[in-house]
Amino acid sequence: MSIVLDLGGLGAADLAAGPSALSELMASLHVLAEPEHHPEAAGWAARAAAAGPDLRDELSVFAPLWARFRCRLFFPRALPLAASLDEELAAVAALPAEDFLELVAPGVLGTNAQSVPPVRELRAGTAAAEDYARRCLRRSYARGELARQLVAAPLELRDRLLAVLRAADTAFFAEDWRTLRTPLEDHAREVRRRLMIRSPADVLTELLPTAARVGPGERVRLDKLQIDEVKVAPRPLVLVPSARVWPHLTVKNEYPSCVVVQYPVRGTTTAEQLTLRDLHHRLMALTSPARMELCRHLLGEPITTSELAARLGSSEPQVSRALRTLRDAGLVRSTRDGKLVRHRLATDVIQRLGHDVLATVAR
Questions:
Q1: pTM
Q2: Proportion of the chain above pLDDT 90, given as a percent
Q3: What is the rounded distance in angstroms from the CA atom of residue 174 to the CA atom of residue 171?
Q4: Of 81, 131, 188, 316, whose CA is between 20 and 30 Å from 201?
Q5: For position 247, what pLDDT does the model report?
Q6: How do residues 204-216 score in pLDDT, each as one tens digit?
């Protein structure tokens, strides 16, 4: 499953890269709401939770907005990009009721598999609004209650959300952002430099380990648990680097807003990102009892192919084939020692497998 971005027709003025404090706050709140999905950020999540214990109940009310689907409200909608969190929150505060409804209602429902009624029909007491609230409730009680409040009084909910976001900024995010902002801005500056001399498809595949060019033209496939093909032009494409979004890769494509890709910056994560195919290869390589037995011998010390064959009572060609499968999956490392080649289990890769599975599913 994947999202394909068609980047053909984008000019220099249609491309932007830069951090967004509001998007980063949203990613941080997601980690805080689901810390078991983000073991790499356990220390940060514990400190943030301790810094804002009084926020817990209010954050749980709005948690559906920064769950996996991610509400469109928290991402840039047009160029130029805002310079600060205050500027982004001021733009949210200025939203009329209908615009706030349009941006938030899909996030409350939390899925692309079901459509949201047109904003003009989302009025308290209408059949469309009642059906929308019921569908949200079927997904979870929290979503159903948030949908009911959104339909009944969108501006009141807007102001309540803004108060929660400002409180989170005061409690823990402002200090975190002071540390994160400069490296993210430096990264974005380098991305903008590349965009001036390289095609956007090339730059995107360089930035995202799980992205690949596909077919003719400027088309890039992103490894996501979605199926979609997005023609970006004539809208702008905005690349939003993040330190907290890992392992997720977020694509927001709602018209008429710009297309946004929020992605983890390399160097801010604890492990490589695998494609679904790579993860499959690693797991399948370990399903063979013969290869698993070979791994047990490779765990203790580097061993040659001939010694492995003698230990296992197998032929050298059989052992070579098994080693090749494990090596191709990244589970075995081979080093030359004079005329001999010795093999050893990549224990660090084996240890990461559980984390890799979670990260790949979560992306």
A1: 0.78
A2: 58
A3: 8
A4: 81
A5: 83
A6: 999 988 899 998 8
- Cβ-contact 71, 252 below 8 angstroms: no
Please state the three-class secondary structure of 213-238 as a single string: ECCCCCEEEEECCCCEEEECCCCCEE
- Please give the average per-residue pLDDT across 164-168, as a whole number: 97
pLDDT digits (tens, 9 = 90+) for 227-240: 889 999 999 999 99
Question: Cα(340)–Cα(289) distance, rounded to whole angstroms?
Answer: 26
Please tell me the distance from the alpha carbon of residue 356 to that of residue 282, in angstroms, as a whole number: 10
> Which candidate, 231, 310, 228, 268, places its Cα nearest to that of 8?
231
- pLDDT band at 251, cuts 50/70/90? very high
Asked if 283 contacts 260 with a C-beta cutoff of 8 angstroms, the reply is no
The rounded distance, in Å, linking the Cα atoms of 161 and 300 is: 55
Percentage of residues of the chain with pLDDT beyond 70 = 94
CA dist 58 and 108 (Å) reads 15
d(CA 56, CA 26): 15
Q: Rounded CA gap, 155 and 163, in Å?
A: 12
Helical pair 97-109 and 154-168, crossing angle rounded to 10 deg:
70
Neighbouring C-beta atoms of residue 179, cutoff 10 Å:
9
221-37-142 Cα angle (round to 5): 100
What distance in Å separates the CA atoms of residue 160 and residue 57, rounded to the nearest whole number? 13
Give me the pLDDT at residue 359, please: 64
